[in-house]
Structures are given as C-alpha cells and as structure tokens.
Amino acid sequence: MGTNGADALSALADPTRRAIFECLARGPKAVGLLAEQLPVSRPAVSQHLRVLKDAGLVTDQADGTRRVYRIDRRGVDAIHAYLDQMWGRALRSFQETAERLAAQEQNGPPEGDRREEERP
Amino acid sequence: MGTNGADALSALADPTRRAIFECLARGPKAVGLLAEQLPVSRPAVSQHLRVLKDAGLVTDQADGTRRVYRIDRRGVDAIHAYLDQMWGRALRSFQETAERLAAQEQNGPPEGDRREEERP
DNA sequence: ACGAACCGTAAGTCTGTACTTACCGACTCT
DNA sequence: AGAGTCGGTAAGTACAGACTTACGGTTCGT
To answer: Distance, angstroms, CA A5 to C1' D4?
Structure first.
C-alpha cells in the first residue's frame, strides 16, 4: 500500500476519483469544499479520498475540525515508473528480435518465413 | 477515442488487463497464445484486447488466421501527459500561494492567520 | 472443396463497488 | 458546558463490467 503503480492506476480509473484528483491539482482543499463542487455526497468523497490516500496519490492534514487534502507526488511517480518499466521491456524485446532477424539473414535466407513473434 | 489519458488509465485498472499488457510488453503475441498464459478464457482475452485497443494501448495486426497484438506507445504517452498536466497544475498552485503569502507578509503581519487553502 | 485452426461477438450470470442515508466522534467558540 | 461544524464509518442498494458458454466468420492446408 502506498507506492504501488497498480494501486495508483486502479485508483485513478474511477471518473469521480479523477475529478477529485483534478480538483486537488488546482490547489489543496477540505473535504466539504470538495464535495460542494462535485455531483456526489460528502461521504462518497470521503470514501474516494480514502482510496486515493491508500494509493499514495493524496495526503491529508488536520486543520481544526477540517481535513485538508492535497496531491501527493509519490503515487504519480509510481505510475510513471510502472509505465516506463513496461515500455522499456517492449523496447528491449523489439531490439532482441531485430538482432535475431539480422543474425538469421546473415546465415541463410529463410524459407519457411513465419512472422517474428514468440513461440512457447 | 484512442489517445485519451482517462481511457488509458481506466483500461489499465483491471488486473487481468494489466497482466495482458505486461505479457505483451515482453513481446508481441497472438490471442490464443496469450490466453494460454492467463487464468481466463480466450473470449475474455479478446474482450480485454478490445478495451486496450480502444484506449490506444495496443495495436493488432493480422497474420493468416491469427491476430498478433503488440504494445502501442500512444496510450502510454497519453497517461504520461495526463499525469504531467496534473502535477504541473499542482506545482503552479503551490507557487501561487507561496507568492501570495510572501506579498501578504510584506504588507502587514497577518492576524487572523488561517491556513492557506482555497476559499470559494 | 472440406476440415481444421484461430478469433471475434452474443447472450446471460454474478461479483465488485460506487452511492445513498443514518449515525457518531472530534474540534471550536461563546 | 453546550451548540455548531466538520468529517469518517456502517449498512444497504443498485448498477457496471468481468467472465463463461455457444455460435459464426475468415483463413490455411490437403
């Protein structure tokens, strides 16, 4: 819980949660103020904030009876890291198959020339 | 449809879909081969691939009776762009409030010193 | 041309979850 | 201390969507 790309990803999947996230990106806000600008009830906002907090996307801070929420960079970074990892894997895979094809061509011209994807 | 951060985000929210995405990151694969390595049926994989394709996260290419899927950079970039936009907003907001606080301090020492978040 | 392989779609079921109302604790100010 | 404000939690409902089986269309090999 916290700095996990998968959790952050699924947290930002819900439209209402994205709306909350985008609203907090414009500046820190208290829960009630957040609920006023959204088409859902205050308890719903609380529940969403819980999910966003568990995903490391927001942090909360007490201010009297209010709780002020703001965006947390950790969750954002976690998603970035996840995507970079995946895309890096894909790039390495592309390079590998390219090298394999080049080596194949050097030896002998292939006859049963199937396409180049993984075979178990 | 295609290069939208929100769609790509919610597409990668499902665990099975993430598994498919991660599997394709290791290299392009056909649908049946993909289904063998996953705990769900082949039609389920087809439906997930449809969602991933609509989100711009994968592309498909016919190869005889098979369809080979591979990762598409556009969806990944869309998510990156969305997150960067949000975090950029947050940074600008931080800077604004910091400047406002500095100006406030220069004029007169604040008395009713409430915390600095947005008031409607 | 016929059978086989591969894949997408249709229809139906069932679980997860987003939402509501109701309730209760924490903090503030007079 | 008591009234008022703010916010998290509980319980219950309703809808989205993930999965299955069954079916049909397309392409390849013999």
So the answer is: 42
- Domain spans of chain A, in order of start: 1-107
Which fold does the domain A1-107 belong to in CATH?
Arc Repressor Mutant, subunit A (1.10.10)
Nearest to A31 by CA among A62, A72, A10, A1: A62
- Asked if pLDDT for residue B110 goes beyond 60, the answer is no
Tally C-beta pairs within 8 A across A and B: 104
Strands B29-30 and A66-71: unpaired
Q: Which nucleotide is nearest to B66 (CA to C1')?
A: C6
- Per CATH, the architecture of B1-106 is what? Orthogonal Bundle (1.10)
Question: Any idea which of A83-97, B37-51, B97-111 has the lowest mean pLDDT?
Answer: B97-111
Q: Name the residue facing A25 among B33, B86, B117 (closest C-beta).
A: B86
Give the percent of chain A with pLDDT over 70: 82
- The sheet carrying A66-71 orders its strands as A29-30, A66-71, A58-63
Query: pLDDT for B55-69, tens place per residue?
Result: 999 999 999 999 999
Nearest to A12 among B9, B29, B97 (CB): B9
